[in-house]
Amino acid sequence: MGRDTVLSGRYELVERLGQGGMGTVHRGVDRQLRRTVAVKLLSSALAHDPQSRARFRREAHAAAALNHPAVAIIHDVGEEPDPDGPRPYLVMEYVSGSTLAEVLRDGPLPVAEAIETACAVLDALQHSHEHGIVHRDIKPSNIMRTGPGTVKVLDFGIAKAFTETATRITGSGAAIGTPAYLSPEQISGAEIDHRADLYAMGCLLHELLTGQPPFRGESPFAVMHQHLFAEPEPVSRLRSHVPSAVEAVIQCALRKDPKERFADARQMGDALAGVLAQSAMPTAQAPAPFPPTTRSGTRTALHHRFALRPTVDSALALLGCLLSLLCARGHVVDTAHFGWVATAAGLLGLVTLPWSGRLSCAVGWGPVAEAVAVNSELRRANDGWAHSYLGIAALLALTAACCLVGAARSKEGGAGSLVAFWFCATASVWYVLDDLHKLFVFYLLLSLVTIATMLWETRVHVRRRGGTRRAALAGQPVSAAPQARPLARRLD
Known about the structure:
Layout: E1 6-7, E2 11-20, E3 23-30, E4 35-42, H1 50-64, E5 74-80, E6 87-93, E7 98-99, H2 100-103, H3 111-130, E8 143-147, E9 150-153, H4 158-170, H5 184-188, H6 195-210, H7 220-229, H8 235-238, H9 244-253, H10 265-277, H11 297-306, H12 312-329, H13 338-352, H14 357-374, H15 380-383, H16 387-409, H17 415-432, H18 435-472, H19 487-490
Antiparallel strand pairs: 1-2, 2-3, 3-4, 4-6, 5-6, 7-8, 8-9
Helix pairs in contact: 1-4, 3-6, 3-10, 6-9, 9-10, 12-13, 12-14, 13-14, 14-17, 14-18, 16-17
């Protein structure tokens, strides 16, 4: 649309400012009131359904009721005729400044400025949540920085309208939003409340401090998988002088379970404001960044550390242990020791499953893969040293090595890689080695993989427990004089 385009005979589109999945944003002029406005013209692909357009108007009217200095004002909502069907548009106040996405191109913000910006956004979110409106699409490009510590939050209510529209049109319930900032409940299609915005605020604050969101991947699906199952890298590893209390706030906001996050935006903002207050009182006690604990707090912590969670990895581990026990009972491999080894592996996998699904998978699936390899036809005694079969065995060995490395480097999970490792490794071993050494090599490999995985998981749990203790200590007063320097100096 060019400069001569006028919507409803009133709003002249002067300049296109940007384009996204929901439509295009233009700088325009309200001819009646003679003022500059921002016009968001929605995509016809998302707005051809009459009920969806009505829903969009209702959400826009609800968002227009918000009256807060950090919320962009909605002036009008209408529809423009189009060959593909009427296209809804929003008329908002024109906000001069830069989006946080543009600001972040120059690198992360100073710590104090990042906290002040996050507090301003949280104040706006608290206002919208009190009016029953969840933003659902908090991200740097939806926040304009209008001055030092002042912001304007854009697009309230729009994401909800189009989440429902996408569900109606595609029937998939696909999440609308940017994958880097979607909460786990948005991705899984569960019920959403204001705590989804708090999760996005944790992602936003992480990026303001480090220059990158907490989860990155080669595809949107890889990023969404991390939101569901992975833990973010601590901010202190990427920027060492970030106060531990701020890091604890981010960790709390990024909890997978909404019940474990802050109760509301005000509580999260108060925790961050307390960090800024320390700049004037360096020895003052920092506010506890976590929601209040109850008498069951210790039991809850132990539950999260040792409870069996219904995940794909735990299901794979359980299946491997059960199959290992069945292989032992069915005498699938006719040797004197294999039945005992398979039984021990299955039981050990079941015992370790509540502690580590990865360790349980490493133990339980070994005998299963060995039993399949024993009964396969891919062996040197049958096929000889033919180049094609030897190539298959070599590639299987290489695949096994890659799968093992992938499982070791995975921060969370890795069960699927371990299953693939065992099937590829045993198939390769059974082709290359003679019958006298095959089982010996398998027993050795099973022992080494089990010990290595146990040591790796122990290291991960020790580091995680150490990080939890440091986060819990973030609310204690600074005692040592050399460390009690003013926080304003550390927030530069």
